[in-house]
Amino acid sequence: QEQLVESGGGLVQAGGSLRLSCLGSGRTFSRYVMGWFHQAPGKEREFVAAISWTGGSTLYADSVKGRFTISRDNAKNTVYLQMNSLKPEDTAVYYCAAKSGTLRGHEYTYWGRGTQVTVSS
After folding, report:
1. Pair 36, 59: CB distance under 8 Å
2. Were both Cys, which of 54, 65, 80, 98 would link to 32 (CB 3.0–4.6 Å)?
3. Of the candidates 6, 1, 67, which has an alpha carbon nearest to the alpha carbon of residue 35?
4. Which long-range contacts (CB under 8 A, 24 or more apart) does 59-62 make?
């Protein structure tokens, strides 16, 4: 069982930056692929980024490439999402998630409760 808790959300102006963190509770955190998703009001949850268990491979949605960076520190059981050049359309609840297996695919097993990111124009 892996419990995930996100933090770091907030209100920021367009063009600004935020760094989200996701702390895992389990002893097997380092074995999981970790991902970030977001869900805007009235929309379905969408994939944002993922990182392999070693941190050596990453995957991004086209909408965030070049602006967002996912990273992890397995010694701290934490995955990060650095978000730069934020746009109003990035406004959403951001969730972190964990799964076993390969980097691709969105069938995640464990989910956090989310953290709100609001970008004002």
Report:
1. no
2. 98
3. 6
4. 59/103, 59/104
- The torsion region of residue 88 among left (phi > 0), alpha (psi -120 to 50) and beta comes to alpha
**Residue 78: strand pairing partners:** 23, 73
Helix/strand/coil (H/E/C) assignment for every residue in the chain: CCCEEEECCEEEECCCCEEEEEEECCCCHHHCEEEEEEECCCCCCEEEEEECCCCCCEEECCCCCCCEEEEEEHHHCEEEEEECCCCHHHCEEEEEEEECCCCCCCCCCEECCCEEEEEEC
Structure tokens at 54: 């070693």
